[in-house]
Amino acid sequence: MSETRTKTQAGTGTGTGTAPLRTVHVAVYDTYADWETGHTTAHLTQHGYEVRTVGVTAGKPVTTMGGLRIQPDLSLDDLRPDQSALLILTGAGLWDAGDELAPFAAKAGEFLAAGVPVAAICGATAGLARAGVLDGRTHTSAAPFYLGGQPGYGGAGRYVEADAVTDGDLITAGPTEPVAFAREVFARLGVYEPQVLDAWYRLFHDSDASAYPVLMAAEAAAATEGTDPSDA
Length: 232
Prior knowledge:
Elements: H1 7-10, E1 23-27, H2 38-46, E2 50-55, E3 62-63, E4 69-70, E5 74-75, E6 86-89, H3 102-113, E7 118-121, H4 123-130, H5 144-148, E8 164-167, E9 170-173, H6 178-189, H7 194-206, H8 212-225
Parallel strand pairs: 1-2, 1-6, 2-5, 6-7, 7-9
Antiparallel strand pairs: 3-4, 8-9
Helix pairs in contact: 2-6, 6-7, 7-8
């Protein structure tokens, strides 16, 4: 149910290890859009994932759009796909200000080439568009014209109007859909069983109170069985 790619399969094991990778990396940079990954990281952490932040330079604080300071856990140069279950790229004003964040888009391409999922929301999709990452994959963003104005973008034919889209290892979403973005991440990593994921989305996106008992039943079943709630 949870991410099934193992260290052995990713090329980091000794040939005998089978422990699934449970580390998710979140790219952080100045003007990081705070609200876009809150649901994703909070619920991943609650379900046994370790969330680590990645900046251009490890230990050099960045300031989010909301004024929070984050000290990255590791540098982008030290980030390896075979040590990660997922790379998350959030929106930021810097994506639209130039190519300062281009190395993060390049790292996303490296992850995808290695078969490791990437999730990009808001302005990060523009960075992937300029890097050519979206051209051969179904994707979404803020609006078609937003990506259409990005130099080097050739993926207009694969653009879809949707709250969030998953195409293989790539997840994309627009700036107004942080809950749908989280839903796609959870589905890709197998954090919840389908019926539980549906209830999670209905509760957090639609404020559907009828979904709450479904989530509580899943949590209770997991506690009784002594398992991760994601396996309920």
